[in-house]
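Exercise: predict the fold of this chain.
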Amino acid sequence: MSGRQIISEHLLEPGTGKAIELLKGQILRVEQVEGGQCADFNAFNLHDYKEFMHCGRTRTVHGFHPTTGTFLWSAPPRERAMLISWKTRSARTTCCFPAASAYVYEAAYGFAVHTNCHDIQAEAQREYGLTPDDVHDSFNLFMCTGVDAHGHAFMTRQTTKPGDHVDLLALMDVLAVPNVCGADVMKTSNFALKPLKLTVFAATEADLAQVPKTPTLASQRTPKDF
């Protein structure tokens, strides 16, 4: 982190999310305060919300657990590297599970009302004109998951400690939207909700020099190409 300029800091309380204008060359750090807290994450092209992070493409290219040095890709037909997972510390990330919704808690637990990642995400994005329909599959930070011998995904308790973090470096101007996962009745966040710390840094020249190049191909299209 030596030499990085801090641009902003924010304490993300349980039950909340935060939409952040993360410009190209800036780094978003999502950090454990007490430990054991999962975060959900959405991202959009800041200047064109039709381009958004695609967990399916990211999972196909980098597997269920993208780690340091792997890209977060946008959905077809754009298919561009939006961010790169940068310098994670003692943190596991996954593209395995979608965000829990109000339906999940009512269907599985009988709760007519319960905090949930989809609603939190929708509220955090709302100030930018995005609706609940715009919430996409989440990139899950600090979630410990796997796939069993029968092909079923599962999650286990996490072991993150205070100070453990994930850094995401923007490769284009993005609207980055992390939220504190609302799953207090699951192993996701060890059956409790805790705050997370958000810090935005300016990447150093040394940071940027280490980013792998991605090709620009004719098949990376926009709606005007159709």
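Check your answer against the key: The radius of gyration is 17 Å.
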